[in-house]
């Protein structure tokens, strides 16, 4: 039996440019650049300015007539000519006889059901790896230029654009630092991508049990002392950790002390990987916590699409320092990413970078102020709690743009409160959990929606008061969900082992053969190779009963579970 040791916290609640000799004067095919591009106005914080609802998006099939009207925009000279956006625009405007993929042929054969929804322009710009558009895995032109400009903005030595989301970035980071049999220190509440990365790499997990707040039923980050203890335990076994992975900020915005963690690890020559999926905006305002790159991380993977404004599934991987081999990162990404990357996704990363570059220190000012006002209003509502730094005193900061609201005092679960807010007020949140709902605020958050949220919560409280109900709070117990984990097989061995299906009643004590987690947030409750415990089973059955979607389970109803043959 392989026993992966763990420990828990005491309960409490220089930009390096690779030009390949071509510099920035990339030009595979001659084309003109426009002098300016469109930049979204941050106008939507003002409720009095109505948006034009007569844009006529997608009303025709003609590329010349399909003009998408964008309301409340302005021409920005400072944001002009993002290199990849420029190249994509010029390529799409060519009067060329096209005999290349994709099959819709620049929209000429686009499915009408979709063009009626989004128009023709996405198809017109959905182009393959044409010479003038560069190559994602061997960039020399506009992709290289765009990635270098991103590296400059985010403070990294090198930046890679990702079309497989932060998932492929986390996988590449772990594969590039951990060889089969080497130890990866990581929090047990890491994202599912970290688990799949260990399957791919053969890394052996050394779990840290995260700080846990039982009143909120929320896990926090990891502390420098926890990381140090984990490193020393590995060293006592005569080994050295290959890497340390930290999730910061968490889904709820809880930030770990990355400065101290990186100093601690670097003193031992251990690289630090930061899953910064929820923190691409950090560092772009004095009131925000610093980013992972600015706190010394070797690798940081950001979901640019989450709080910044690129398209869903587009992310960035940033590297700094000399502890990680950049060539291994590149090889891993080439292994993991599609050989037919979407240029719409890539261009959206370039555009999102350009948008932030326009006013990097002030662009989030209005959004931050609106977030502060929103939290202040909600705190005044009787029976409602707002997650703040006092709930996690061992951590230096919480992302000010993340709003987590608790309904414990009303006797409502997060799932019940979410159903009321959605059905009665059409309010859509980011994350629902047993005790709380989390709302993500961003550059597009408008005052009208905030007012609807506040009004909806007030109505929810009033309805709850008029219809008293017994407490339905999910008790957190005396220990965190992951505190009593026993690992019999490492994730890779469990993934490839023989398996069988057993009923839920007979699964207790068996070795889990599948990765099961409520989504969102995508934090696995059961990992292949771990012994199935009553606590984990009870938790999964409870959140499923309350409406959570269970991801990874071959039986979504959880009447049975796949286990390993031992």
From TrEMBL:
The keyword Lyase applies. Keywords: Decarboxylase, Lyase, Pyridoxal phosphate. Residues 39-62 are annotated as: Disordered. It holds the Pfam family OKR_DC_1. Residues 43-53 have a biased composition (Basic and acidic residues). Its cofactor is pyridoxal 5'-phosphate. Residues 82-388 form the Orn/Lys/Arg decarboxylases family 1 pyridoxal-P attachment site domain. The keyword Lyase applies. Residues 500-544 form the Orn/Lys/Arg decarboxylase C-terminal domain. PANTHER family: ARGININE DECARBOXYLASE. Belongs to the Orn/Lys/Arg decarboxylase class-I family. This is Arginine decarboxylase-like. It comes from Prunus mume (Japanese apricot). The lineage of its organism: Eukaryota, Viridiplantae, Streptophyta, Embryophyta, Tracheophyta. The gene is LOC103323723.
């Amino acid at each position: 039996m392989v026993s992966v040791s763990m420990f828990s916290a005491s309960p409490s609640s220089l930009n390096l440019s690779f030009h390949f000799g071509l510099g920035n004067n990339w030009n595979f095919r001659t084309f003109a650049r426009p002098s300016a591009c469109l930049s979204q106005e941050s106008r939507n914080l003002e409720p009095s300015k109505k948006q034009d609802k007569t844009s006529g998006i997608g009303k025709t099939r003609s590329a010349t007539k399909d003009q998408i009207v964008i309301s409340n925009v302005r021409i920005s000279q400072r944001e002009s000519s993002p290199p990849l956006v420029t190249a994509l625009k010029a390529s799409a405007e060519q009067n060329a006889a096209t005999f290349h993929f994709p099959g819709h042929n620049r929209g000429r054969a686009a499915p009408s059901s979709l063009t009626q929804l989004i128009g023709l322009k996405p198809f017109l710009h959905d182009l393959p790896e044409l010479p003038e558009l560069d190559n994602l895995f061997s960039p020399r032109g506009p992709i290289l230029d765009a990635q270098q400009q991103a590296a400059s903005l985010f403070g990294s030595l090198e930046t890679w654009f990702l079309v497989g989301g932060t998932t492929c970035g986390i996988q590449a980071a772990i594969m590039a630092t951990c060889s089969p049999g080497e130890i990866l220190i990581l929090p047990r509440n890491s994202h599912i991508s970290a688990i799949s990365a260990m399957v791919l790499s053969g890394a052996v997990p050394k779990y840290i049990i995260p700080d846990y707040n039982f009143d909120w039923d929320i896990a926090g980050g990891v502390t420098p002392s926890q990381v140090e203890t984990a490193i020393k335990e590995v060293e006592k076994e005569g080994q050295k950790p290959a890497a340390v992975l930290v999730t910061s900020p968490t889904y709820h915005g809880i930030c770990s002390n990355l400065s101290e963690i990186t100093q601690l690890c670097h003193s031992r020559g251990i690289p630090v990987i930061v899953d910064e999926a929820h923190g691409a905006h950090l560092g772009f305002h004095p009131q925000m916590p610093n980013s992972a790159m600015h706190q010394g991380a070797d690798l940081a993977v950001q979901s640019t699409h989450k709080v910044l404004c690129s398209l869903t599934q587009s992310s960035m991987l940033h590297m700094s320092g000399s502890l990680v081999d950049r060539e291994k990162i590149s090889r891993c990404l080439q292994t993991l990413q599609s050989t037919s990357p979407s240029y719409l996704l890539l261009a959206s990363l370039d555009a999102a970078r350009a948008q932030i570059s326009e006013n990097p220190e002030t662009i989030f000012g209005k959004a931050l102020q609106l977030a502060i006002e929103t939290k202040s209003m909600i705190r005044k509502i009787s029976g409602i709690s707002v997650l703040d730094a006092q709930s996690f005193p061992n951590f230096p900061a919480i992302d000010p743009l993340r709003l987590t609201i608790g309904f414990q005092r009303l006797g409502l679960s997060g799932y019940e409160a979410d159903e009321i807010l959605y059905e009665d007020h059409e309010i859509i949140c980011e994350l629902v959990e047993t005790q709380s709902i989390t709302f993500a605020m961003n550059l597009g958050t408008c005052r009208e929606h905030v007012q609807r949220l506040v009004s909806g919560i007030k109505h929810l409280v009033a309805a709850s008061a008029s219809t008293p109900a017994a407490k339905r709070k999910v008790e957190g117990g005396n220990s965190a969900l992951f505190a009593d984990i026993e690992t019999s097989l490492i994730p890779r061995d469990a993934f490839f082992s023989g398996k069988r299906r057993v009923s839920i009643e007979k699964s207790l004590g068996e070795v889990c053969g599948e990765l099961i987690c409520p989504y969102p947030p995508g934090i696995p409750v059961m990992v292949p190779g771990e012994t199935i415990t009553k606590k984990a089973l009870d938790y999964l059955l409870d959140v499923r009963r309350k409406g959570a979607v269970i991801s990874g389970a071959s039986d979504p109803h959880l009447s049975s579970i796949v286990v390993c043959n031992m």
